[in-house]
Amino acid sequence: MTLSGESSGGLSVLSQLVSPGARGLFARPQQQLAAAMKQYWTDLAKTGSPDLWTEPLWPRFDSASQQLLSLTPPQPQVETGFAAAHHCPFWALAS
């Protein structure tokens, strides 16, 4: 099984996440997230941008705003404060 495409007879993980057969495997919020993620990947493959047709828009990361797209159920959302919430300065010093 491959992440996004089929190769050597393998199945795509992303296609399995949103296939009708997977509906009983995931809760509704997880299904919604899987569908949004599939659309982001599709947009990226078609256009080079992950968010031409998908909301919320995937922000370009920069150190000033530190906005990122959080991929948590039920749907992606733009967040800030990741570094503080995950104690990144501490872990940067620890490495």
Structure description:
- With 95 residues, the protein is mainly alpha-helical.
- It has one domain.
- Helices cover 38% and strands 6% of the residues.
- It is built from four helices and two strands; from the N terminus they run H-H-E-E-H-H.
- The protein has a two-stranded antiparallel sheet with strand order 1-2.
- The longest helix has 20 residues, at 28-47.
- The chain starts with 12 loop residues before the first helix and ends with a helix.
- The model has no long low-confidence stretch (mean pLDDT 78).
State the gist of this model.
This protein is mainly alpha-helical and 95 residues long.
How is this fold's topology laid out?
Elements: H1 13-17, H2 28-47, E1 68-70, E2 77-79, H3 82-85, H4 88-94
Antiparallel strand pairs: 1-2
SS class: mainly alpha
Listing every helix as H and every strand as E from the N terminus to the C terminus, the arrangement reads: HHEEHH
Q: What fraction of residues sit in β-strands? A: 5-15%
Task: Give the helix tally.
Answer: 4
